Amino acid sequence: MIHFYYGPGPNPEKIALFLAETGMPFEAIPVDTYRGAQHDAAFRTINPNGKVPALVDTDGPQGSSATLFDSTAILLYLAEKTGHFLARAQDRPELLSWLMFIATGLGPFSGQAVHFQHAAPEGLDYATTRYRREAERHYQVLNSHLEGRSFIVGDRYTIVDMSAWGWLGRATRVMKDEDRPLERWPNLARFMQMMNARPAVDRAHAIMSRHTFKTVMDADARQAMYPTSFSTASKERVS
């Protein structure tokens, strides 16, 4: 059985989409990150990094239990376990390259752009500009790659498309103050229209909506989400 630990955000959504696409049985276990559940000792035994998503497969390789964290690792594991949504053998190098492009570039820079534009204290203009511009650069790289093609890798739908969908779905947050955040990147807009038309997307959203998570970013939520940035101890060290 797959035990899927999730909370709000683009990275858990990728896994929800894979589960929705395959119809494989799973148990969804909410981790309320605004309430600090990701720091509980029990969850830290599953993901020492204290983030969602995480996954425990009680029917892992050779009958053993498998524990995974990080959305990219989970997507690769599930794709290899099921044999679904992997590229053809000749396209595997491209799949790995673009998967890591999202894991180490598009995702982190988008996340930091969101943080510095929406959550960080004011006055950090250099960081805000740096991450926003890098997110835009990654958008352009992927937009250029998608010229004349439907999918990111080869001619078939893969876990790379799922991974990109998760983060591009946050474009309105990444591209703050833009009413049409993908207008400058028409291939990305077309890609997202294609992805959102998939029936599994609605099922993935339904998975993500099973639990009502805390959504208010109050002082407790800031402490839970950014403990090294907003803790009193951290401020004292900086001063």
TrEMBL record:
<dbReference type="InterPro" id="IPR040079">
    <property type="entry name" value="Glutathione_S-Trfase"/>
</dbReference>
<dbReference type="InterPro" id="IPR010987">
    <property type="entry name" value="Glutathione-S-Trfase_C-like"/>
</dbReference>
<dbReference type="InterPro" id="IPR036282">
    <property type="entry name" value="Glutathione-S-Trfase_C_sf"/>
</dbReference>
<feature type="domain" description="GST N-terminal">
    <location>
        <begin position="1"/>
        <end position="86"/>
    </location>
</feature>
<feature type="domain" description="GST C-terminal">
    <location>
        <begin position="88"/>
        <end position="228"/>
    </location>
</feature>
<dbReference type="Pfam" id="PF13410">
    <property type="entry name" value="GST_C_2"/>
</dbReference>
<dbReference type="InterPro" id="IPR036249">
    <property type="entry name" value="Thioredoxin-like_sf"/>
</dbReference>
<dbReference type="InterPro" id="IPR004045">
    <property type="entry name" value="Glutathione_S-Trfase_N"/>
</dbReference>
<protein>
    <submittedName>
        <fullName>Glutathione S-transferase family protein</fullName>
    </submittedName>
</protein>
<dbReference type="Pfam" id="PF13409">
    <property type="entry name" value="GST_N_2"/>
</dbReference>
